């Protein structure tokens, strides 16, 4: 059986712990490979490689770093179909969705190619007589990233291209469920000319993450995953003296006002709720229908949902693939089955869905729950599957209060033709990313991605300007060159005259 190993010091590193995890095809349920699971010793080896490479990489010119990144950008572009196939084979998402993931990750590589502009410092001359002050930003050292299963290529590219562009070296821990895309990204980086040790990949589970959080030579950790784990990563990493950005879970709401284009809203709801089988932290999982919009909106969503083709991700006809594991499929199904008992109306029940010829795959159909209320499990928990909840509100104010009461604040959207209402919403809603007639408001690569409340732990969003600040630290240099007129001792407080 194929074995997926680690990538340390610019080459394949076979697992030495003796522990392996299964890699499966979600469309068939069959194991297709095994992945080496790192022990603390293997994490230590990756960190040692990154530490040894840091001094030379830190001192390399911006021109040298960007030349590598430009070549890397071209290689990813040339291999985007191959990367998408690796994603589909291990995650299950349809090929077009996987291609989109690679394209969005590539945006961050392109932004990292412009790092000379982003690292420009500041200079104030003559702040005092013959005194100048400069502010510069310098890399941290060895930094690490722990990424989830749902975006095996994009989320790593949210992290390491910008980190290494800033002069850091990087240790990446991908999800052990979907390791191949991260490994291939590291191979392509080496082909682009990235020096050995600058980017390392260690596969593993909790033991690897715990060692990353405890390792004294790792200065910062970036994390994307569920809220409980994000909180653990933040508190543990911070207690160890590390800088941490930990992006957690979400329950993203979409408000639909009475004046909205309901056909556009229904299109957006189906696309944002069921795309990638709902395994997106920016998926719309709750619609708040205001006034009399609920019934016609449900009818439109139901009609569109019935036309969605579910099947293996490699089939061009498929629009939605399976879930990542059988256990996750069963967990998602449990929310749908329990919804009616808690008072919700199950308009669509996808729990019995299967694909002929692929009965052992991790399949689930589209589910739609109406008359959901905040105390129900389907609303209180992040389901992370193709389950859309619909809540009803009498007014904009009631709807806004419901959204802001949620413990999460990742993304949100409003559908309306009223510019005043949209402006009010974007200022009043407690979420980090807001869409106006845009259901999934993921920022472009030169803005930053991040939520509020329990969707983000730490003071920095990811990529964009916040990403540069996270992976660097500031230094202020005050300079005065000797002049005979300055001779003599002065014990007074320094002044700016």
Q: Which regions contain 5 or more consecutive residues with pLDDT less than 50?
A: none
Look at the structure and give the mean pLDDT: 96
Note the quaternary state here.
single chain
Radius of gyration: 25 Å
Figure out the total of helices. Answer: 16
Widest beta sheet: strand line-up: 15-16-17-14-13-19-20
Total strands: the figure is 23
Shape: globular
What proportion of the residues form beta strands (DSSP E)? 15-25%
- How far is the N terminus from the C terminus? 74 Å
Structural class: alpha/beta
The level of helicity is: 25-40%
Biggest sheet, open or closed, and with what strands and sense?
7 strands, mixed
Report on the structure:
- The protein has 497 residues and is of the alpha/beta class.
- Helices cover 37% and strands 23% of the residues.
- It has 16 helices and 23 strands.
- The chain has helices at residues 40-59, 62-78, 80-91, 95-112, 115-118, 154-165, 180-191, 206-214, 227-239, 262-274, 294-305, 326-339, 377-380, 396-404, 419-428, 464-470; strands spanning 2-4, 6-8, 11-13, 20-24, 31-36, 122-128, 131-139, 142-146, 169-173, 199-201, 218-224, 243-247, 252-256, 284-290, 345-348, 367-370, 387-393, 408-409, 411-415, 433-436, 452-453, 456-457, 472-480.
- The strands form 6 sheets. The protein has a 7-stranded mixed β-sheet with strand order 15-16-17-14-13-19-20, sandwiched between helices. Strands 10-9-8-11-12-22 form a 6-stranded mixed β-sheet, sandwiched between helices.
- β4 and β5 (31-36) form a beta hairpin.
- It starts with a strand and ends in a 17-residue tail after the last strand.
- The mean pLDDT is 96.
């Amino acid at each position: 059986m194929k074995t997926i190993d680690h990538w340390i010091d610019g080459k394949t590193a076979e697992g030495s712990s003796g522990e392996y995890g299964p890699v499966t095809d979600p469309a068939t349920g069959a194991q297709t490979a095994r992945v080496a699971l790192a022990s603390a010793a293997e994490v230590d080896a990756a960190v040692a490689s990154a530490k040894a490479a840091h001094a030379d990489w830190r001192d390399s010119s911006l021109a040298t770093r960007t030349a590598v990144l430009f070549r890397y950008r071209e290689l990813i572009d040339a291999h985007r179909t191959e990367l998408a196939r690796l994603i589909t084979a291990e995650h299950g998402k349809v090929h077009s969705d996987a291609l989109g993931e690679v394209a969005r990750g590539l945006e961050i590589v392109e932004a990292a190619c412009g790092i000379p502009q982003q690292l420009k410092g500041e200079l104030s001359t003559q702040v005092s007589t013959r005194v100048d002050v400069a502010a510069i930003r310098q890399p941290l050292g060895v930094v690490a990233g722990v990424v989830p299963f749902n975006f095996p290529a994009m989320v790593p590219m949210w992290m390491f291209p910008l980190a290494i562009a800033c002069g850091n070296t990087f240790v990446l821990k991908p999800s052990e469920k979907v390791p191949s895309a991260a490994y291939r990204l590291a191979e392509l980086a080496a082909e682009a000319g990235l020096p050995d040790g600058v980017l390392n990949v260690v596969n593993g589970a909790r033991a690897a993450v715990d060692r990353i959080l405890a390792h004294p030579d790792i200065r910062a950790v970036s994390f994307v995953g569920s809220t409980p784990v994000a909180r653990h990563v933040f508190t543990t990493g911070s207690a160890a003296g590390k800088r941490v950005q930990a992006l957690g879970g979400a329950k993203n709401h979409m408000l639909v006002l009475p004046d909205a284009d309901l056909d556009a809203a229904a299109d957006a709801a189906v696309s944002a709720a069921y795309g990638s089988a709902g395994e997106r932290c920016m998926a719309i999982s709750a619609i708040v229908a205001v006034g009399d919009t609920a019934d016609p909106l449900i009818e439109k969503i139901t009609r569109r949902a019935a036309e969605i083709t579910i099947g293996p991700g490699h089939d061009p006809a498929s629009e939605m693939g399976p879930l990542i594991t059988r256990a996750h499929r069963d967990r998602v199904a449990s929310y749908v089955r329990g919804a009616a008992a808690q008072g919700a109306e199950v308009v669509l029940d996808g729990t019995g869905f299967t694909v002929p010829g692929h009965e052992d795959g991790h399949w689930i159909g589209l589910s739609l729950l109406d008359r959901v209320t905040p105390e129900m499990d389907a609303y209180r928990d992040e389901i992370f599957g193709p389950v859309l909840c619909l809540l009803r509100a009498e007014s904009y104010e009631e709807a806004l209060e419901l959204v802001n009461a949620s413990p999460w604040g990742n993304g949100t959207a409003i559908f309306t033709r009223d510019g005043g209402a949209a402006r009010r919403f974007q200022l009043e809603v407690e979420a980090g990313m807001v869409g106006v007639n845009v259901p999934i408001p993921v920022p472009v690569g030169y803005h930053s991605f991040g939520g509020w409340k329990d969707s983000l732990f730490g003071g920095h969003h990811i990529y964009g300007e916040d990403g540069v600040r996270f992976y660097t630290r500031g230094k202020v240099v005050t300079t005065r060159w000797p002049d005979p007129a300055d001779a003599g001792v002065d014990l007074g407080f320094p002044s700016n005259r």
